[in-house]
Amino acid sequence: MTSRPAIFVSIDALAGCIEVAAEAGFDILPHLRRRKIDPDLIAGEHGLIDYADITGLLEDVAAGENCPDFGFRLARAQRPLQFGMISQTIAFAPTVGHAIDTFLKYRALYSQSGHWELQRQDGIAHLRRFWKAPQRREGTQIVAYNITKSVQAVRALIGQDWSPIGVYFVADNIAVTPAMRRYFNAPVFFGSQLDEIAFPEADLATPIPTGNPELLAVLTSYLDRLLPDISRRGQISAQVQRILRTRVGSAPCSLEDVADALAMHPRTLQRALVAEGVTFRTLKNDARMQIAHQLLQTTRLQIAEVTSLTGYRHASSFSRAYRQTNGQPPHMKRLGS
To answer: Are 14 and 58 spatial neighbours (Cβ–Cβ below 8 Å)?
Structure first.
């Protein structure tokens, strides 16, 4: 039986966990150490972490500290719309419905831990979560965390007085505390086919005050260029490629440098890339060639200058690599050739 490749998500999914634990009356640091999660990474909210480590940590804490609603407490304490550039993008959407659709389109750039869909039926909007491995149940804490984050996100778009008309859980053993019921301010149902929140479809037409079509178009155009990398290669490969494109020729971009930028051990990064069917060397070469191709076709830079900007020490090495990748020497691709 083959093991599944790791699913990595942003470390900011654990943002505030130390403070939330302290408020609940216990120290989470021993649990973090057992899971080999660096507290400094959480404080910096920068880097990636295996989704299995997050789910395991939440279950460890809930059971070991007699805190059955820790996933809910953590989600409630975090910032709403905590999704990096995607958060900036949806803020420029004209309506709540457009914002949710935009988020769902680009969510894979932030996390591939599950699949969400917005469905409209008989005047009701259903924001539903599909777990990638339906034959295996997720831990109850991560489910409560994800549903709480979805309520929090929609509330941030519509207004703090907003509440869904129903919250639905697949599992029947979610510990819904009085605090959770007050936060949801809606009936809670168990044994559902999917985890979801339901609310009036009319809420999707609510305008967003910061809506800006021009800025939305600029940001979605950029995100559109990243999506093919995700679908063609995988989440980690696309993250590495994004970093390399901004660093090649201008900043250190060795395996160790990129791993540090992702807050991953180099060997962990190598294993993740192999699981996605690619090597770091291939990604780095691809990034160099993409930059070189763009420079040669849009500028009048000399070959020596393109060599330097793509991180090669010698023009001969650059020319040889370019010919192997593109079938022609670089001077054949220069602007005006």
So the answer is: no
Tokens of 188: 């809670």
From the list 12, 159, 148, the residue with the least C-alpha distance to 73 is 148
Residue with tokens 């900043």: 251
d(CA 16, CA 73): 10
Give the pairing type, strands 48-50 and 8-10.
antiparallel
What CATH class does 233-333 carry? Answer: mainly alpha
* Delimiting residues of CATH 3.90.1520 domain(s) in the chain: 8-205
pTM confidence score = 0.74
Contact 145, 74 (CB under 8 A): yes
Asked if residues 157 and 183 have their Cβ atoms less than 8 Å apart, the reply is no
Evaluate whether 14 touches 39 at the Cβ level (below 8 Å).
no
Q: pLDDT tens for residues 175-205?
A: 999 999 999 999 999 999 999 999 999 999 9
Counting runs of H as helices and runs of E as strands, what totals does the chain give? 16, 7
| CATH of the domain spanning 8-205 | 3.90.1520
pLDDT in tens, 69-94: 999 999 999 988 776 678 888 989 99
287 CB-side CA count, 13 A: 28
